[in-house]
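Most newcomers find our protein records easier to grasp once they have seen one. A record pairs a protein's sequence with a compact description of its fold. An example says more than a description, so a record of this kind follows:
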Amino acid sequence: MKRPGNFPDFRARAHPAYWAFLVHRCSGLALAAFLPLHFWVLGLAIHGEAALDGAIKYTDQALFKFGEWGLVVLLTLHLMGGVRLLLIEFLPWSGLRKNWIALALGCGLATGLAFALALLG
């Protein structure tokens, strides 16, 4: 049933493609928010080896390791979401493409698991 006026149909939010869209956009925003901190730490190298070593030593805490894992997962999900969009744009197939969404999610989770095992091992 169509709602009167300009109201969106909320059933679309239950579709896997909506969630793939949302994950791709949110992961991109989170990665963009991380960049200033990353550049700040890299900029410490200009001030000498001791300044950079102090920042790197600070990142040996468990909370930073968890954040690092999260960044790797976000980066993989964003990458796979972008590849999915490129495939949708340039390949002639039509349909829902739920398998591509599942592949993108699976790659993100596999990369996250591999990175977590590398951190713990």
Notes: The mean pLDDT is 84. The CA atoms of residues 69 and 116 lie 7 Å apart. Helices lie at 16-43, 49-58, 62-90, 98-120.
